[in-house]
């Protein structure tokens, strides 16, 4: 199966995955721009997504990273993928109306993709980098999964 | 300020932080057992916390890691901390009724703590490791934050 | 092929791999104690393995982590493995006569092992934790590697 | 103290640090091109820097990452820094005559810089990405270090 990798068709496909993921839906994540090797994910920063100082919760940004990195892996490896691991660095507190994750493929072989994303907080139209992540997506081993 | 580090008082303190974090509340996280250097966080695996295959969403486990690792850092550094970064490995799909994160302090100096957690899925009373995380918690630089 | 996983036979096997790795030999690394799921790697802290403050170089500790984590992966997955990635935290400066890495398997499935190690500096018989690492080892895809 | 951040002066400064680090000298690392926010580190791939399949040792690439990431942190935070942690992903085996690490600053606050690098193997004039790393550099707490 080949995934659409660019344009409205790719965005619609990606958001159908979001719709099928109850947790991604719970946080209000939507893909909004996809080109080959790049994807943008947007999450409006609702009050129930924050921590006790009123900033975006680290878990929220981690969830955005997980969604973005996995999707970028699927864009080059196909839909049958697993997220092996990722690392996230928090650069500064996330404040504003919206968080945006911009993901890309760093490098890929036949069975594995290394992907990264930068997460920005948007406040009054201005973007500030708040986090960055780097992860590994692998092709799911169907025979093993069935074992 | 010194945090209670053991017993019901520590659990109550930790859960007041959870109560103040809307996103932690949204996912239903609760601390339930805290001893010096160790803490257990529990999240019932509701349907709205899953991904499209019905497993626990990677972002959910990442959020549990973020909460657990940060709390362990605060237990040795005091409440005024920031999570610098963490890394999470997904070992196997998370299925069952409950996820449990068991966190501990690996090492700490005056300004920084390295903490880890193992996350288990509980199904029919049996625990399986589903993820593990390692992170860095730092004392917040108040003067810088105010600058 | 099954690897010996415990005792002098396992240590001898592991050190033959070290002998075949010129860079591991260059830093003077030796395995010295291996039991199922655990392995100890020792590096005498020579002057030419340090940074400009006289501490163990971060690259040295990273190399020990790479060797330790990969070996632990091979102990459960077999010898045909690749190190996908790892993360290392530096807890405090490494001073003393020797560095020791104690590695273990956190969790493994058929194609992937998550392994960790703690690195200690030994000075006057006393051990201090100086670094900790967490990584992912995968079975090499022979068909892909040959393609 | 302000570090030179561009041109031959910056390269000379960076290589004096290399000269003072016996382990960096042992592996033959040299900075060769530095502009504000970017630095290139080169290591000729000698036979004694390899693993048992003849590829660049993972520890070598990790050491290049450690040197590159730390230098980029110092370029924005000043020379008094510590490397808190980093993560490295291995994309494909490293073969060729030379390894090159290209590092940059992802984001920085007053006390902390997040830096990344991509490591390439050069063979016959062609570059291939072999690894990528992401790390955290912090200002050393002098008072704590003296305690």
* Oligomer classification: homotetramer
In percent terms, what proportion of residues of chain A is strand? 35-45%
CATH superfamily caption of chain A: Hotdog Thioesterase
Structural class by SSE content of chain A: alpha+beta
Largest sheet of chain A: 6 strands, antiparallel
What spatial order of strands do you see in the largest sheet of chain A?
1-2-4-5-6-3
Number of structurally distinct domains of chain A: 1
Tally the helices of chain A. Answer: 4
In round numbers, the mean pLDDT of chain A is 93
Order of helices and strands of chain A: HHEEHEEEEH
EC number (chains A, B, C, D): 3.1.2.20
Enzyme class (chains A, B, C, D): hydrolase
InterPro entries (chains A, B, C, D): HotDog_dom_sf, PAAI_dom, Thioestr_dom
Family (chains A, B, C, D): Belongs to the YigI thioesterase family.
């Amino acid at each position: 199966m080949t995934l659409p990798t660019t344009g409205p068709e790719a965005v619609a496909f990606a958001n159908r995955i979001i719709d099928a993921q109850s947790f991604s839906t719970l946080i209000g994540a939507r893909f909004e721009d996809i080109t080959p090797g790049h994807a943008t994910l947007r999450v409006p920063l609702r009050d129930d997504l924050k921590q006790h100082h009123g900033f975006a919760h680290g878990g929220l940004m981690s969830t955005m990273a997980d969604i973005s990195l996995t999707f970028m892996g699927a864009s080059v490896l196909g839909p049958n993928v697993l997220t092996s691991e990722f690392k996230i660095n928090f650069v500064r507190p996330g404040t504003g109306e919206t968080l945006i994750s911009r993901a890309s493929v760093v490098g890929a072989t036949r069975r594995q993709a290394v992907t990264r994303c930068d997460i920005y907080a948007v406040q009054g139209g201005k973007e500030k980098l708040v986090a960055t992540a780097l992860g590994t997506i692998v092709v799911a081993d169907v025979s093993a999964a069935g074992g």
